[in-house]
Specification:
Number of strands: 14
Largest sheet: 10 strands, mixed
Order of helices and strands: HHHHEHHEEEEHEEHEHEHEEEHEHE
């Protein structure tokens, strides 16, 4: 074994004119030689397998890595200074690097010449630097969802920090009407500001998102946020009961350790009785998609006030029991932004109360994705059956509340 290793080591030394560091020497022999690190392997080879002056040769700069693996201490200090400048809070991290093409080319040429397949210099650089940072910070490396990504850009002699988003999950209640869920850019100026929107760039002065996000951004020192809801209610609809699930994504948070109960109270004060949140908890990136795609998998309970064009008697109202399986073509009012297709949704339970001769109150427990206003009006026959079609009387929803979102 030592004979084979010695021959390979000698060949490597010849091809690099002896100008190779212990990291790179050990890495190219790592499959044949045990050891805790490539540097340890390289030291063993140099002092135990090589002959003559090769052992004692002073290396000015490694021909393979150009000395970057021997200067990890300097790189470590640069990273610590950069992280200290922004005072970022994190529990997990990941190291990456960008190396000059010539380094990668030299390594590939050497491996082709001696017919070796070993880990890349990038992997060793990231691993060894990650071990040093772990020892200094006492924080764990996370390959999937790190809080902080440290990118070492060797060609530009710089350290780039990527602060990954923070996710907070909860439920919101919208206690007033005429507030959209998210910021609605002006349809005229597309958010730039014009006379039509009073130079706000928005169709509506505030939104659920804008009443929740500011206290969170203040607490996390984040740069911006993005709101992800489990579906959305119309602007003129209240969201009551136990609230609608949402995930708030906070970009570039400098602080992650939060008192969520205190934050909940801050948000509710900021919401001024218009919006409030409950059940805040830490969340993960994958919940963002799960929440957004959960709308049609939920059951929702609505309270609808219905006005009829004519008086209705109790016998006719019994026909509403036929509202079970609803075939609903994309409503006219959203056809400009939704695919034109027929959706099937089930009503689990429907109860009604007659307020007066021309007014009904309906409680509807149904699958998510059912358009309630069109269930009542029929939407020019696009929803079948509907309240209007079963009663034989034009009907319209004049007030709607979401009472529960069960997910």
């Amino acid at each position: 074994m030592d004979f084979i290793l010695k021959n390979k080591a000698t060949q490597i030394m010849e091809l690099t004119d002896g100008e190779i560091c212990d990291h790179c020497l050990g890495r190219h022999l790592s499959r044949e030689l045990p050891g805790e690190s490539n540097q340890e392997r390289g030291e063993y080879v140099r002092h135990n397998l090589l002959d003559g002056t090769e052992k004692l040769q002073v290396i000015e700069k490694c021909q393979i890595c150009s000395g970057i693996l021997d200067n990890l201490d300097k790189t470590l200090l640069n990273i610590l200074d950069r992280v200290g400048e922004i005072n970022v809070e994190f529990s997990t991290f990941l190291v990456g690097c960008r190396l000059p093409p010539e380094i990668m080319d030299k390594e590939n040429d050497l491996q082709r010449e001696i017919q070796l397949e070993v880990e890349s210099i990038k992997k060793e650089f990231n691993r060894e630097l990650g071990k040093m940072l772990h020892e200094h910070w006492g924080k764990e490396v996370d390959f999937d969802n790190p809080h902080l990504v440290v990118m070492v850009d060797i060609p530009n002699n710089s350290v780039v920090l990527q602060i990954n988003p923070l996710f907070i999950e909860g439920r919101y209640r919208k206690l007033v009407r005429n507030i959209p869920q998210t910021k609605w850019p002006c349809r005229k100026c597309k958010g730039k500001g014009c006379a039509f929107c009073n130079y706000t760039g928005k169709m509506y002065e505030e939104s659920v998102e804008e009443l929740i996000s500011p206290p969170v951004l203040k607490a996390t020192k984040g740069s911006e946020s993005k709101f992800h809801g489990a579906g959305r209610e119309d602007i003129d609809v209240k969201m009551l009961g136990n609230g609608r699930p949402f995930v708030l994504e906070v970009k570039e948070p400098l602080k992650r350790s939060l008192d969520l109960k205190s934050l909940e109270e801050d948000i509710n004060r900021y919401g001024q009785g218009k919006v409030e949140v409950l059940k805040l908890k830490p969340s993960q990136k994958q919940r963002r998609g799960a929440i957004k795609n959960s709308s049609t998998d939920t059951y929702k309970t609505y309270l609808a006030c219905v006005e009829l064009d004519e008086a209705v008697d109790a016998v006719n109202l019994d026909s509403l029991s036929k509202l079970k399986l609803i075939k609903q073509r994309t409503p006219i009012r959203v056809s400009h932004r939704r695919a034109d297709k027929v959706r099937k949704r089930r009503i689990k339970e429907l109860t009604f109360t007659k307020i007066d001769e021309k007014t009904l109150e309906l409680i509807i427990d149904c699958e998510g994705g059912l358009y309630i206003k069109e269930l009542i009006s029929g939407d020019e026959g696009r929803t079948q059956p509907s309240v209007a079609s079963l009663l034989g009387i034009p009907a319209r929803c004049v007030q709607l509340d979401v009472m529960e979102v069960n997910i």
